[in-house]
Amino acid sequence: MSASLAIDVRGLTKRFGKRVVVDDVDLAVAEGEIVGFLGPNGSGKTTTIRLICGLLRPDAGEGSVLGLNVRTQSAAIKRQVGYMTQRFSFYEDLTIAENLSFVARLYGLKPVEEAVAKTLDGLGLSSRKDQLAGTLSGGWKQRLALAACIMHQPKLLLLDEPTAGVDPKARREFWDEIHRLAGEGLTVLVSTHYMDEAERCHRIGYIAYGRMLATGTVEEVVRGSGLVTYIVHGALKPEQMRALSAAEGVEQVAPFGASLHVVGTDREKLAAALEPLRREPGIRVEPGETSLEDVFIKFMTGAQERAA
Ligand SMILES: Nc1ncnc2c1ncn2[C@@H]1O[C@H](COP(=O)(O)OP(=O)(O)OP(=O)(O)O)[C@@H](O)[C@H]1O
Ligand SMILES: [Mg+2]
Most CB within 10 Å of its CB: which of 8, 27, 88, 308? Predict the structure, then answer.
């Protein structure tokens, strides 16, 4: 690999009590890369992010973050990382400017006023600097949080569900900004539950029950899943629906608007399960593309079954 790695960790493991929450996780992220981190609730995304930025100490594992040892140089790592926590972490009853100046002092930026003014200007929030942070809209809160966590010019951004509950336009603007920052050389690891956001990343990693189940580009992850998808157009009767769901080879049946996505691993069995429907008037069956969501549902089901 020609580009150097901003994150290069192996075997990262974290236990809380007896529970292994992050289990032997390997992660390599190149400089300037945007990597999406996906997985069900409680799968260990936030914990992994905290291990990487030096806020938590791993029970096992090794490697480097920004060329620094993840086990022994956590203080130095923290100074060069921007970490946006899962929940809005500002003082809602302080103004926008007061919040930024708090962050500027935290990082020892000098002069504080200049750093704050520059950030406000970049955000286009100069005229609203005296507004209480708690009164900002969801989208603006996230933009403020992002601006605050790049004030000290970190080399690595760790964003933990930065756009949860934010409307599509604000989310798009947020992602434009992330791509702009990555274009300037910043490396980004971003956790999300949104499929469209996964598709905006250069690569993704999928974690369930603390284990990294797949990494790669979206295309690689979809291909690697080995799933086959057919699309059924037309209205199915309840008994047809039941028969299809129960048929051998059918692993998922999911409605998308007026059509159904029928997903399985074995192409022949899947085709055979759909055969009776092909003869029905008003119903059309055609090959479809497997979506990332289909793949994640399979991962989740598989991980649940293994855990049980
Ligand atoms: N400090 C802690 N002490 C004990 N258990 C914890 C602690 N932090 C997290 N956990 C547990 O570890 C597991 C993984 O949590 P984590 O927050 O990393 O998941 P997540 O993937 O970020 O989930 P979500 O998508 O809901 O944010 C959860 O079961 C959680 O309850
Ligand atoms: Mg989390």
Answer: 27
Q: Is there a common fold for 5-222 and 228-289?
A: no
**Of 228, 232, 78, 214, nearest in space to 156 by CA:** 78
Architecture of domain 5-222: 3-Layer(aba) Sandwich (3.40)
Residue with tokens 């993704």: 204
Are 29 and 155 in contact by the 8 Å Cβ rule? The answer is: no
- Name the band, by pLDDT with cuts 50, 70 and 90, for residue 3: low
Tell which atom from ligand 1 comes closest to the C-alpha of 48. Answer: 18
CATH 3.30.70.330 for the 228-289 domain, yes or no = yes
Q: What confidence category does residue 87 fall into, taking pLDDT thresholds of 50, 70 and 90?
A: confident
Global pTM exceeds 0.90: yes
Distance from residue 72's CA to the centre of ligand 2 (Å): 25
What is the average pLDDT value for the chain, to the nearest integer?
A: 93
Instruction: Decide if 151 contacts 115 (C-beta within 8 A).
Output: yes
Q: Which of 189, 199, 169, 157 is nearest to 35 (CA)?
A: 189
**Once rounded to an integer, what is the mean pLDDT over residues 42-48?**
97
What is the per-residue pLDDT for 305? 79
Residues with CB under 6 A from ligand 1: 16, 21, 39, 41-47, 86
CA of 126 to the centre of ligand 1 (A): 37
